[in-house]
Amino acid sequence: QVHLVQSGAEVKKPGASVKVSCKASGYTFTGYYLHWVRQAPGQGLEWMGRITPNSGGTNYAQQFQDRLTMTGGTSISTAYMELSSLKSDDTAVYYCAREFCTNGVCHLDYWGQGTLVTVST
Amino acid sequence: DIQMAQSPSSLSAAVGDRVTITCRASQNIYTYLNWYQHKPGKAPKLLIYGASTLQSGVPSRFSGSGSGTDFTLTISSLQPEDFATYYCQQSYSTLPTFGLGTRLEIK
Predict the structure, then answer these.
(1) Which of B46, B94, B98 is facing A45, going by the closest CB pair?
(2) Interval A18-72: pLDDT, tens
(3) Are B71 and B57 in contact (CB under 8 A)?
(4) What confidence score (pLDDT) does residue B107 get?
(5) Which of B43, B45, B91 is nearest residue A112 as measured by Cβ atoms?
(6) Is the pLDDT of residue A103 over 90?
(7) Which of A98, B62, B64, B92 could form a disulfide linkage to B48, CB 3.0–4.6 angstroms apart?
(8) A97 at B interface, C-beta within 8 A
(9) Among residues B25, B50, B49, which one has the least CA distance to residue B37?
(10) b or e along B70-105 (b: 16 or more beta carbons within 10 Å of the residue's beta carbon)?
(11) Contact with chain B for residue A103, Cβ under 8 A
């Protein structure tokens, strides 16, 4: 059974960085892209980026290009999302999600439980 | 980036009602369109992928249609557990994008 388990809630000051982990189990970690999506309070879902665990290749949404880093620890089936230069509007719940493709159509079929990151002085 | 416009942004309906949510892409995305349900405090849940294929375990009252730029999600007979926010998402582009969401509330 597929599970994605994320690290716990974080409180950070503006300008700091946060690193959230996502541990996968129940499937071959290197075989599937892993995405990160966030939801700020009162806002919708926002796609941030994805990583190919096998190669470490990444794609990031333009608005995060200069301060987002995604990595994957293949030996421990864990993906990491690090966001730097935090601002108050980075306060959000951050989700990891597995991408699954059927006949070329790709979707996010399993999600982590979410990690609340609060940015506050 | 491909923009996804959802309507309405919110909707009030009663148990048993038939509900339709629409999603329009800013360019042709063929059938690379997915729908998710999101409840407060929970992870989003995949409902439909490829515009019309029901994800395993999702009740058959949910259906999706459309291709190109215009898509719909229909719930044939609302159940109490369906009150949530619904998002469309395009997976045509290397950079996926979500719609802004449709909040479905109890009338």
Answers:
(1) B98
(2) 999 999 999 999 999 999 999 999 999 999 999 998 888 999 999 999 999 999 9
(3) no
(4) 87
(5) B43
(6) no
(7) B64
(8) yes
(9) B49
(10) ebbbebeebeeebbbbbbbbbbbeeebbbbbbbebe
(11) yes
Measured between beta carbons, the chain B residues lying within 8 angstroms of A114 are: 43
Q: Which two tokens stand for residue A77?
A: 């089936």
Cα separation, A1 vs B4, in Å, equals: 32
Q: Quote the CA–CA distance of A11 and B70 in Å, as a whole number.
A: 41
| Residue A29, C-beta contacts closer than 8 angstroms, at least 6 positions apart | A53, A72, A74, A77
Give the CA distances from residue A5 to residues A23, A28, A108, in Å, rounded to whole numbers and listed in that order.
Answer: 5, 15, 15
The CA distance from A109 to A100, in Å, is 6
Instruction: Please check whether residue A96 is in contact with residue A108, taking contact to mean a CB–CB distance below 8 angstroms.
Output: no
Instruction: Supply the pLDDT for residue B69.
Output: 98
**Which ranges of chain B have pLDDT less than 50?**
none
Confidence of residue A120 (pLDDT cuts 50, 70, 90): very high
